Amino acid sequence: MTGKITPALLNLMPSDAVNQPVDKILLLLESQYGKQLYSVFENFHYPSPLANQRNCAWIKRARTVGINVRTIGDFWSVIPYSMTLPSAQQAIHLLPIFEPGVVSSLYGPTSWHINPEFFSQELCNVFPHLDTVEKQLSLVVGLLHLTGRVVGIDVIPHVDRYAEQSLANPGLFEWIRRNDLIISDHRADLYTDVYDILYMLQHKGSATPGLSLPATPSVFFEQWPEEHRLLLMFGNPDDYTVRLNRRKKMVELLYQAGLETLPATMGPPYRGVEVDPDPNAVNIDDEGRIWRDYRITRPEKFSRVFGPLARYKLYESKNNNSNWELDFEKPNIRAWDYVCDHYKHIQSAFDFDVMRGDMSHVQMRPEGTPANPDRFYDLLAAVKLRILPEKPYFGYFAESFLAPPGQMAYGDECDHLEGSLADSALGDLQSEPVGTTHFVSELARYDELLRTRKFAPNFTIMTADKDDPRFDKFYVNGNETRYFIGLFLTDMPSYMGLGFECRDKHIVPAPNEHYTKLYVFKESKGPKATFGPYKWGQNTKLYHQLNRQKSLAEEIFGHIRDVETQWLLAPDRTGAAKVIAWTQNTTPRYIFAANLDQESSRQIDFNFPGGNWKMLFSSVYSNPGERNSALQGTVIGAGECLVWEKA
Length: 647
Description:
- 30% of the residues lie in helices and 19% in strands.
- By secondary structure, the protein is α/β, with parallel strands linked by helices.
- Helix 3 packs antiparallel against helix 7.
């Protein structure tokens, strides 16, 4: 991957960087990119750094940073934040960008429109022609491409319970009829009842004057182009208030009829839900409607039901869904084409380079991954395949935690990732403090997967889902070590959520406004409520230490970016040995070592390749001389990371 990245705001705290005036950021960009900069402002486009790549191999070594745009306010703020990152972190993943639905969850899209809350009025004031959120997103992707970065989008296999997608396409989803605590109907063709109700509503008046209904509901929902249905049902796409009010009327009608989309599930057995009778499993919305939570009738360890979300109906049901069984031999081809076509359009419209597949761990077949998966095996694979002919470099980053077989998916999750054509997988190293026996043994397992599987597991530093009060204990110590491995272990891709680099130590939980996870939602009451904007950490000590690593990366990363590594001390599968060390497989130039033990010094017990070596960097000491006077050369301090350069 080529492209010039200059981290112009490398030493500025992210909270300060995103508050820089637009004109100041423009001057910095102009000084680096000249006239090319204003070409992007005119055309909303710049070729991807991957434009000449013919495969997806790049993502197996990518260092990715995930950004919840809601935490920084708007799309434009992605640019100054990206200017605090080193060139080694060359991929930007934007968390979901579509209009959200219930509780404003980013992972519950309610339409294919771009989220209007991500519009920057300041940018529009400077450039009046950037007067829509879509233009601003196109500009930002183009600017990231100009600066040498690639950009990813979330592909989500579900929608909000009553999204425009489900209301305009009832047959692409499963439906249930609830009567208080009882699911009274869940037959496969229940969606035809939804046809009738929504068709009747349209007789009271089209949202767009001049459009009239066809003769029957089935013609309207199955033969009319979706764009015509949306205009008739919801009105002008740019009039959010009208669309919302029209949708609310439909929700009320369906609610009175007891009709809801079947909620999405996670973990085996996936199928078979019932109303949760717990008196606390109740939600009352602003209109006074009473919603019940659901649960799996025969739950296993990771069984979970997501009440406000509806998964696309990808397969027909057996026996009219009397026993909640799917017929995997009968794909609902309309649903597959619908999702793939829409994401292909989104990719093309904004020139995304990679997709992060949400809930990639879902594998519903009790028999596990088939030996020869077909094109209707996995929806995320199908989206990738739809885009690849025009963008052969379009990669697939899977949200998969590499759990043991049978836990989060039927069968072996690694087999599923290969069957679904994943190039890279998130993994779960962020869910364990650095240096524990389990952390070390998992790192060893990931290294084995990297070398034996078709996908590359990530060294995950932190995700937006783990920046949550429940997971504070993972980040009390070892953050410098996490970043060092994620930056310099070039064989393995890495992933870092925004805010990690200056995250405060939360010995006790901080207010919700200090956690990026809680800005996935927009709740005003309850345990996930936030009041006001996200508050960046002010851990200047950590940020200074990581900036030393960033500066080192700017100096040496070009020499190691595409070079295979060789272990001098590989991660220990038993988890007992805590020091790891590596160099380049051919012509070693740098040696990297990290003590995963955050409490005790350890012996350096590996043989240096031939030649003379000098210490270049210590994560603990500012210069090698200071370090060598404090520690013997054969000892690596607790949590210390070292780099040697060949003299």
